[in-house]
Amino acid sequence: MSMDSVWVHSLESHSYLKPKILDIIDNYEQVREKRPEGADATTGVVCKKTDFFDPDPARYFPLFFENSHSLFDAICHKYWASSFDVDYVWFHQYHFNEYDGWHMHSKSNISMAYLLEIPDLEYGTEFIDIEKNTTFQPKVSEGDVLIFPSHIIHRAPLIRSNIRKTTIGININLNYPNMDKINPIDPIFNYES
Questions:
Q1: Which of 55, 130, 131, 190 is the least crowded, having the fewest Cβ atoms under 10 Å away?
Q2: Is pLDDT at 92 greater than 80 in this prediction?
Q3: What are the tens digits of pLDDT across the range 106-139?
Q4: Which sign, positive or negative, has the C-alpha torsion 156, 41, 153, 22?
Q5: Average pLDDT of the chain to the nearest whole number
Q6: Alpha carbon of 19 to those of 69, 84, 97, 133, 140: distances in Å?
Q7: Domain extents in the chain
């Protein structure tokens, strides 16, 4: 999968969302620092503050969802989808010497990384382009959402300075194709018409 498959959406509501979501995360009581017994051990996340392993994560997601309609509309438009289901939502908050190793997301079509707090863009998400056998890092700003097929290998690089970086990960599954997009190119495809 190539770098053309990763795209960026700038979230207009970021300045509104950032303090509200960070307040929820700052007041989050850590449930687990490690994956629960028997959980998949493929991810190399080294991050002390996360709700990834919380049985009831994402208390901030309703606020995010209510203020991100343009993002979800853009996703449906780009992939010709009529709707989607949110599979999983989590945050990672990285400090000095923390990272998330190379991984991909299973059980979803599309993944997103919302760059809620990133004081140094050097620490943006990195991807592997398996067609060119290289790594790449999209140009981003705080408040951007990286959107990509879930199987693209990516990581959060090691934080080597005294900063705090906070991201929200979201996995979604696209449901049905938007027939209004398909009918003009292949009206016979819709056998119910």
A1: 55
A2: yes
A3: 999 999 999 999 999 999 999 999 999 999 999 9
A4: negative
A5: 88
A6: 19, 27, 25, 39, 20
A7: 3-28+60-188
Q: How far is the first Cα of the chain from the last one, in angstroms, to the nearest whole number? A: 35
Quick check: pTM over 0.90?
A: no
Q: Which residue has the tokens 């990384």?
A: 113
Give yes or no for a contact between 67 and 16, defined as CB atoms under 8 angstroms apart: yes
Extract the tokens encoding 86.
């949110």
> Among candidates 184, 179, 183, which has minimal Cα distance to 83?
179
3-state SS string over the chain?
CCHHHCEEEECCCHHHHHHHHHHHHHCCCCCCCCCCCCCCCCCCEECCEECCCCCCCCCCHHHHHHCCHHHHHHHHHHHCECCEEEEEEEEEEECCCCEEEEECCCCCCEEEEEEEECCCHHHCCEEEECCCCEEECCCCCCCEEEEEECCCCEEECCCCCCCCEEEEEEEEEECCECHHHHCCCCHHHCCCC
Residue type, 95: H
User: How large is the average pLDDT for residues 178-191?
Assistant: 72
